[in-house]
Amino acid sequence: MTNTSYIKIETICKHYEVEEHLIFEFSDAGILSVHKYEACDCIIVEDMVHFEKIIRLHKDLALNASAIDVVLNLTEKIDAQQIEIRELKQTLAQIMSRQASELL
């Protein structure tokens, strides 16, 4: 059984200087998960890196929840394509290595 740690939204809001309604806006848009824990609204500690990315996009670029969702989706697709490119390069290198050794 895993031990899940939570951070209260109230604490997060104070630390990041954001209003609680903003976090619920992100939750309503489906880009952040808010959980109830001991009668408090919380975010799972493991989701904090994701939350920080959302807050940076919101504050630095003045993006709303919908725009942040688009950016996150595009970033995810780019990351997947980079992994695929890396794998294809490795496969190509292996094929070329085999062909070179066959010529010798």
Beta-strand proportion = 5-15%
Terminal residue distance: 56 Å
CATH class value? Mainly Alpha
Overall pLDDT metric: 94
* Number of structural units classed as domains: 1
SSE series: EHHEEHH
Architecture, CATH level 2? Orthogonal Bundle
**Oligomerization state:** single chain
Low-confidence stretches: none
What does this structure look like?
With 104 residues, the protein is mainly alpha-helical. It has one domain (6-103): Multidrug-efflux Transporter Regulator, Chain: A, Domain 2, CATH 1.10.1660. It is built from four helices and three strands, in the order E-H-H-E-E-H-H. A three-stranded antiparallel sheet has the order 1-3-2. Strand 2 and strand 3 form a beta hairpin. The radius of gyration is 21 Å and the shape is elongated. The model has no long low-confidence stretch (mean pLDDT 94).
Question: Briefly, what is this?
Answer:
The protein has 104 residues and is mostly helical. It is 67% helix and 11% strand. Strands 1-3-2 form a 3-stranded antiparallel β-sheet.
